[in-house]
Task: structure prediction
Amino acid sequence: METLEQTTIGQYVAKDFRTAAIFSKYKIDFCCKGNRTIEEACENKNLDSHLILDEINSVLASKNENSIDFESWPLDLLVDYIEKTHHRYVEEKTQVLLPFLDKLCNVHGAVHPELFEINELFKGCAGELAQHMKKEELILFPFIKKMVKATITDELIEQAHFGSVENPIAMMKHEHEAEGDRFVKIATLTNNYTPPADGCNTYQVTFAMLQEFEQDLHKHIHLENNILFPKAAALEKKFSRQE
Result:
């Protein structure tokens, strides 16, 4: 069984993504702030860390036939998965959500002025994520793939123009945290994605899509912060030791 000790929240979720539901239930950030222990996170929220750990151990002790073991994947496969699953999701859903939010502002904004702030927050998120993903696709991800290929072919790799891979990783993690904070504000303004009593079908669908978008973003950031980035940094250190 797991202990509180030094295991981080991100490591629990990397081991079994079902534990993410437990952290979400207690509003503990497992993606952007996944580098904390359960004890540290609970101290900030006045939660019983032992109670949460019992729930986690119960999940880990049960079989999960459908769980995907992302930790065991080669990094180039994980990069492709993130691009084709999560990057495409963001690209597709932002194109749907933006006009829906504009429509809500036009129809319901007079009675629900918070919609204008929600709309601006999501527009900011859509723009920042688009740039963020391009930086990953054009700079960071190709370098990770190059390192993976070099381990197979036993080739040497030249140092990237950005220096250590830790540099773009630090930038990506900072941007992840900014978007995580932005969605905390969106969740608050939407009353945790609960449409008001006078909300029409578009209102309900839009809030449901925003909630799904946040959930996908959490998994997206988790795969990068807690699995891809640490393994990429470790792989780079392996090359450094061989020089």
